[in-house]
């Protein structure tokens, strides 16, 4: 302990009117629960708290010294008892550890009022599935629902999120990755959270009840009160919504082993945080499902017969077709199904955010089209209301995120390329690729971070690629919705065994469509850069998804850049975690690969 810190602790102890023989200060200051309350973590042989608000600490040395902060808290709480109202969770814990002290009886009207408004009967974890439209949400998102026992859409929901201001593009990514944003805990009504996620972001939600006794729920609420509007360091790949919510929930488990908030390497993503809580608390299969708007649309579309689909297409073209026989001749239940489906379609169209971009709106006329949809929708809703109640069947309950493969992967294999043979070591830090087992992930998407492959021959160990990030979204077009397919790549890769990997970046857009329910074809093109300058590259391919058993893909790519090749790969799933693959690259030199990998 430094000299200044020693004298500060000594001064604080001198102001205490009690002996500490029963619970020595140093021992109490090293209690893991005290560290949880102040969010201390080891750093450089000492400690550091990421809380960026100075008034969260009562000692000037508080952010780095658990002992100094403990001494200052004991002095403040016993000499000025009303300070306990600002920090009720730590005051509650200290009283439990040192019950013989004179703590006073502070009155806390603001705290009492806040608890009366927000206090829940129980808690639930809500996991929001990936959203590819926002880098910060591509790995899922976590919320904590404060269930007040009335099954109300007004139940408060807690989230931890970065305040990003006007940051966009590269600035947004850079600040998010390297801690340039502050994160804050906030509360919003359940109905607002549902609208934002189910409607605007079109994400499925999974709710898991957390079994905690009332005392544990109370201490979580008290700590949440302490954290209001206090900035905390935020990192996309570590101290994010999942990491911070696990910290908060962990306070309800006094004396238990802490949750694993990060993996073998110092990173954490919300999907893994959700799995950690679900597995540790035995919540597997106990979820309630909130389907996104698009899932509802396609689930109901599958139930419509041919006359109902014909009537749907006619109504989406114009509401004047409400008086035409293909709608009027339908039975009342059929009419209700058609109108419910039309409402789903119109809601998805109205939720599009592309109209916020002036250039896109000028090109596509999105806002004008949305205004027309609003007028048409009012007519359809009026007719639907006149039909009475015909409840819509809920989509099938999918497996929870706990059934998904692990986000990190490591594998071993072999290759043969012309006269060269050797072994392979490959894997990625996160998250999911196009042929991975699809359960729990968005279909026809790929998001990989730090994807690498090493090959070993008798003469050398060689890096064939290191992809810092690769994102691919091949959501198919259909007669109702026409999303763009796109791909983003940044990293090093090579196909020539005599040359080292080349750093390159690439962005592509294109089209994708299902030619059968399980086979998708696509085409992409776009600009890239490498050591020799800029280039244009195109790619065309297919994906054949064989359910929970296997998947197959093939593609060819060509252009003025470094990659002139094709690839065919078959993937076979051996349960939730294991996969094996066979791959063939016909050019520039024929190459065969195979491997076995484990996700974790």
UniProtKB/TrEMBL annotation:
<feature type="domain" description="DUF7843">
    <location>
        <begin position="27"/>
        <end position="97"/>
    </location>
</feature>
<feature type="signal peptide">
    <location>
        <begin position="1"/>
        <end position="22"/>
    </location>
</feature>
<dbReference type="InterPro" id="IPR057165">
    <property type="entry name" value="DUF7843"/>
</dbReference>
<dbReference type="InterPro" id="IPR025178">
    <property type="entry name" value="Lnb_N"/>
</dbReference>
<dbReference type="Pfam" id="PF25225">
    <property type="entry name" value="DUF7843"/>
</dbReference>
<keyword id="KW-0732">Signal</keyword>
<feature type="domain" description="DUF7840">
    <location>
        <begin position="403"/>
        <end position="579"/>
    </location>
</feature>
<dbReference type="InterPro" id="IPR057162">
    <property type="entry name" value="DUF7840"/>
</dbReference>
<dbReference type="Pfam" id="PF13387">
    <property type="entry name" value="Lnb_N"/>
</dbReference>
<protein>
    <submittedName>
        <fullName>Uncharacterized protein</fullName>
    </submittedName>
</protein>
<dbReference type="Pfam" id="PF25222">
    <property type="entry name" value="DUF7840"/>
</dbReference>
<feature type="domain" description="Lnb N-terminal periplasmic">
    <location>
        <begin position="112"/>
        <end position="251"/>
    </location>
</feature>
């Amino acid at each position: 302990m430094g000299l200044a810190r020693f004298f500060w602790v000594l001064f604080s102890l001198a102001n205490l009117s009690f002996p500490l023989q029963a619970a020595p200060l140093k021992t109490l200051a090293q209690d893991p629960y005290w560290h949880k309350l102040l969010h201390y973590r080891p750093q450089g042989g000492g400690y550091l708290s990421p809380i960026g608000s100075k008034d969260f600490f009562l000692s000037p040395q508080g952010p780095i010294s658990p002992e100094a902060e403990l001494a200052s808290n004991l002095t403040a709480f016993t000499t000025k008892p009303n300070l306990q109202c600002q920090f009720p969770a730590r005051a509650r814990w200290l009283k439990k550890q040192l019950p013989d002290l004179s703590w006073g009886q502070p009155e806390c009207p603001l705290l009492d009022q806040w608890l009366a408004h927000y206090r829940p009967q129980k808690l639930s974890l809500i996991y929001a599935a990936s959203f590819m439209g926002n880098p910060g949400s591509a790995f899922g998102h976590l919320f904590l629902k404060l269930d007040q026992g009335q099954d109300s859409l007004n139940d408060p929901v807690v989230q931890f999120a970065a305040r990003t201001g006007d940051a966009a593009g590269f600035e947004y990514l850079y600040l998010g990755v390297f801690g340039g944003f502050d994160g804050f805990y906030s509360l919003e009504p359940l109905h607002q959270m549902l609208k934002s996620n189910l409607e605007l972001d079109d994400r499925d939600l999974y709710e898991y009840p957390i079994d905690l006794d009332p005392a544990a729920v109370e201490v979580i609420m008290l700590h949440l009160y302490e954290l209001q509007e206090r900035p905390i360091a935020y990192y996309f790949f570590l101290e994010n919504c999942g990491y911070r919510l696990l910290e908060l929930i962990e306070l309800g488990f006094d004396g238990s082993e802490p949750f694993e908030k990060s993996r073998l390497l110092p990173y954490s993503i919300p999907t893994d945080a959700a799995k950690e809580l679900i597995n540790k608390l035995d919540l597997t299969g106990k979820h309630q499902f909130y389907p996104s708007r698009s899932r509802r649309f396609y689930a109901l579309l599958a139930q419509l017969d041919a006359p109902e689909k014909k009537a749907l297409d006619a109504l989406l073209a114009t509401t004047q077709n409400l008086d035409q026989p293909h709608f009027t001749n339908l039975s009342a239940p059929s009419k209700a199904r058609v109108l419910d489906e039309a409402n789903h379609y119109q809601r998805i169209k109205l939720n599009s955010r592309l109209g916020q971009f002036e250039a896109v709106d000028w090109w596509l006329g999105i806002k004008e089209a949305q205004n027309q949809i609003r007028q048409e929708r009012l007519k359809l809703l009026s007719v639907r209301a006149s039909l009475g109640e015909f409840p819509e069947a809920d989509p099938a309950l999918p497996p929870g995120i706990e059934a998904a493969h692990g986000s990190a992967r490591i594998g071993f294999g072999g290759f043969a390329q012309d006269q060269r043979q050797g072994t392979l070591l490959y894997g990625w830090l996160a998250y999911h690729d196009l042929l991975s087992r699809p359960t729990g992930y968005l279909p026809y998407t790929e998001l990989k971070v730090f994807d690498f492959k090493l090959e070993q021959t008798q003469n050398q160990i060689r890096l064939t690629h290191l992809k810092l990030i690769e994102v691919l979204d091949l959501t198919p077009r259909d007669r109702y919705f026409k999303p763009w397919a796109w791909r983003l790549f940044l990293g090093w890769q090579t196909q020539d065994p005599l040359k080292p990997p080349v750093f390159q970046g690439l962005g592509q857009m294109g089209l994708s469509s299902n030619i059968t329910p399980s086979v998708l074809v696509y085409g992409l093109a776009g600009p890239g850069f490498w050591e020799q300058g800029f280039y244009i590259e195109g790619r065309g391919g297919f994906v054949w998804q064989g359910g929970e058993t296997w998947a197959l893909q093939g593609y060819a790519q060509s252009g003025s850049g470094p990659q002139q090749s094709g690839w065919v790969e078959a993937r076979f799933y051996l349960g939730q975690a294991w996969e094996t693959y066979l791959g063939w690259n016909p050019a520039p030199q024929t190459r065969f690969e195979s491997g076995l990998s484990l996700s974790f």
